[in-house]
Amino acid sequence: MAGGELTGSTRYYVAMKCGRFLLGFIVVCTLHFSLPRLMPGSPVFAMLGPDVIGLSEKDYAALEAELGLHDSLPVQFARYFVNIVSGDFGFSYFYHLPVKKVVLIHLKPTLMLLLPSVVLSSLLACILGAVAGRFSGRAGDLVFTPLFLFLYAMPAFLLAMVSLDLFAFRLDWFPLGGLKGMDTGGCSPGHVLDVMRHLFLPVVVLSLSSTAAKFLVMRNSVFSSKHQGYVLYARARGLGEGRILFVHILREAVLPMISLVGLHVAFIMSGSLLVEIVFSINGMGALIHEAAMNRDYPVLNTCFLFLTLVVLTVNMVTDVLCGILDPRVRV
Amino acid sequence: MRLIRYRYLLAGGAILMCFLLSAVCAPLIAPLGPDNGDMPFLPVSPSHPLGTNDMGDDILNELVHAGRVSMSIGILAAVISVFIGGGLGILSGYFRGLGGELFTGIIDVFLLIPMLPLMVVLAAYLGQSWWNIVLVISLLSWCSTARAVRAKVLQLRETVFVESLKGLGIGSRRILWHHMVPHVFDIISAKFVLAVAGAMLSESALSFIGLGDSASISWGMMIHYAFKRGGFSGGMWWWYLPPGLCIGSCALGFILIGMHAEASHRMSRPNLHTVPLSGKHSI
């Protein structure tokens, strides 16, 4: 990164990653396009909902023509793609609003839950994983490894239900759900504190349930670097164990973690949808839940598109970050 | 020392034995069957060890019978997904070329897609039935198996023994069936147990959202009903907690066995670095 001759390869690497993002975008759009057309039942039904039942043959054919379903598939796809790029995702027959508007309203709470959880679970995994790997076989390792495995196997929504029942219903430490209390608004410090108080429990649950995989990778990579030359040398120089662990070993082990974090965003996303439903946060999870109950296919389909775009974006960012921090992964 | 090496396998096996036994002996443990009327919303009592639900059914009975549904969905979906993943992985690894590269590229993209929203979309389109859930889960969870198998086959086809087989004039089909399949079998079996855990967790998530089959109650459906019909807001932990713990511990059993399989696989080939627990990527 520092030398002039490296910028070219950095640029190439970033371009490669952007190319992969584009490939992902095209794959997802293709899915988004073909799902309503491939599924059993007519695409008109999938796009306009139960209102079309009972229409006469003639009205039905007129609707089909209006939706452009008589054209050949490539023409339909081209038109669809232009619509997507210009931000037209169809119309929600349940909410009677454009789909884009419905989805964007619900995306914000999900991101407010998702992004802190990604950061918190990565930090937890790094620190605890490093400690468990460094002192493997001792108390820290023997407690954390089974604990995280257990949390990993439990469904995220169950953890959410138990913690809500325990800490909000019974102990009354936290609010019962939602994102903010009744009387606050705007960006005052009180409002921010209130939102943080509401977010605390869901973020902790989501982070704990998604720490395990990263924790184990961290633990194993610290464990295997324990006997490497540079660690021995650092110890010979008389450095303390804490400094060796957090400055020398961690610096090496953190790099592969960054790309792993990117890969795990999709997994945390799935958990976040379920945790939201339990905590009655009005985000994408609630929207998907409601849309699935009401068979609002355009909204469901577009939720999937938006969530995937979020994951693809985070992934591209972590990949690029990883490549800039550690030129070795660019190969 | 021996026991420590097999600790994951032993722990996982012990957990799974309990669940398999209870599923097989369901009529003995829970003679009342899933539907049995009594007063609704009864708390824990000697005649109903876990109380009754909103329909007045004994929750312990329902729990034992729901285990059969959850586990059979998990195992069936995992079998199908491993078949698809293994088959495509072997073929794309052995007959590499532009098609194989494109295939890996598309798999890589698929592994990034958050699976739960896609599963929900598909399940909503296809409608609620036991078989549709199996289909949706298995069709969306074969990618990581395919990638691992393909990587292994790409390594294998460069080895001397495969080259000498080709030199002897042995046909591709025979090489694939008699020499490739046995060599990837350990990867496939490790992926299989992890896929069962992933499939069970996916099923519970789909059911929790309300896309499960209401005709055959699984553990996930039990939690769904407890959540929807006042069990959760009424603080009836004996309704929603047991099915949740069952899903979790059953999945944990499969994950522990899968971790043992992956660890012993890694130990025999130390240069192969695999990310543990990649099976759960399916949700």
The number of helical elements of chain A comes to 13
CATH-derived topology of the domain at 93-323 in chain A: MetI-like fold
Unreliable residue runs of chain B:
270-283
Using the coordinates above, name the CATH class of the domain at 73-267 in chain B.
Answer: Mainly Alpha
Secondary-structure-based class of chain B equals mainly alpha
User: In percent terms, what proportion of residues of chain A is strand?
Assistant: under 5%
CATH homologous superfamily assignment of the domain at 73-267 in chain B: MetI-like
Weakly predicted, low-confidence segments of chain A: 1-5
Question: Structural class of the helix and strand makeup of chain A?
Answer: mainly alpha
CATH architecture of the domain at 93-323 in chain A: Orthogonal Bundle
Proportion in helices of chain B: over 70%
The averaged pLDDT of chain A comes out at: 80
Describe the structure.
The complex is a heterodimer of chains A (331) and B (283). In chain A, strand 1 and strand 2 (97-98) form a beta hairpin. Chain A has a domain at 93-323: Orthogonal Bundle (MetI-like fold), CATH 1.10.3720. The longest helix of chain A has 38 residues, at 241-278. Chain A has helices at residues 4-38, 43-48, 57-66, 73-85, 99-134, 139-153, 156-170, 189-209, 212-225, 229-236, 241-278, 284-293, 297-325, and strands at 91-92, 97-98. The model of chain A is unreliable at 1-5 (pLDDT under 50). Chain A is mostly helical and 331 residues long. Chain B is mainly alpha-helical and 283 residues long. Chain B has a domain at 73-267: MetI-like fold. Chain B has helices at residues 2-5, 7-24, 26-29, 59-94, 98-112, 115-126, 130-140, 143-156, 160-167, 172-209, 219-228, 237-268. The radius of gyration of chain B is 22 Å and the shape is elongated. Residues 270-283 of chain B have low confidence and may be disordered. The interface between A and B is large, with 58 and 51 residues.
